[in-house]
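Workshop exercise sheet. Pairs work together: one partner reads the sequence aloud, the other fills in the structure field after running the prediction. Swap roles for the next sheet.
Pair: D.N. / O.F.
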Amino acid sequence: MNNSELLFYNEYEQFYKMTGQSKAFEKFCLDAFGEDFSQDGFSDVDQINRILEYIPKGDDVHILDIGCGNGKMLGYLQEKTGANIYGFDYSENAINTAGQLFKNNADFRQGAIGEIDYPEGKFDLIISMDTMYFAPDMEKFVLQIMKWLKKDGVLFVGYQEGDVMPKTDDVNTTVLAKALSKCGIAFEAENITSETYDLLKKKREAALLHQKDFEDEGNREWFDLLLLQTEGILKPYDSFAKEMARYIYIVRK
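Structure field:
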């Protein structure tokens, strides 16, 4: 790792250490997102419930989450469908927690995009919520994902531009969309920027509601980070949308 990557990794290690201990963060997630998936982003329960329609029925369904964190989102999907769950994340703390929380029909691995591989045609559904940005070669990675999918399998991506990735003109010109198109992979997309603006409002309100809980735990820095992450809603929506965009991409094999 270079110094920048090491700093980012250490921040995530500290984040997942905090989520494993903080009752304030658990309460914040429930109020902000409707479920505690230890979210460091925008995946509220309504977004995650959209995934359910792409999970086939049956006893031998396999789901992979790219950047699975501590596995709570996968655990929720498994509870709803009975699917076998797989996930990888480069945070050791996140993967250790996932392995402790979910032991049945579950496989969690520590590793980064480009380092992990799975058998061809393994998965009915592959999920990536706010993770595709970290692919060192987006075209190469989407081709690898397509290899991992079964025939008729689905890739479900929550994708944002304007923070980690520079914002482009529309849903068809993002880094991900251009990589898919270049590889000849058809996709469907939905712009959920307005929904995200409303969610950020709720996230900020929940953070302020639990400010004292964070402070009493000695976790004031995480509260401050939540306020920083939600500063966008202090602008009118039209100004926000010029700088930030969020999409859901669906790819069917």
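Discussion prompt: The longest strand covers residues 149-161. What would you look at next?
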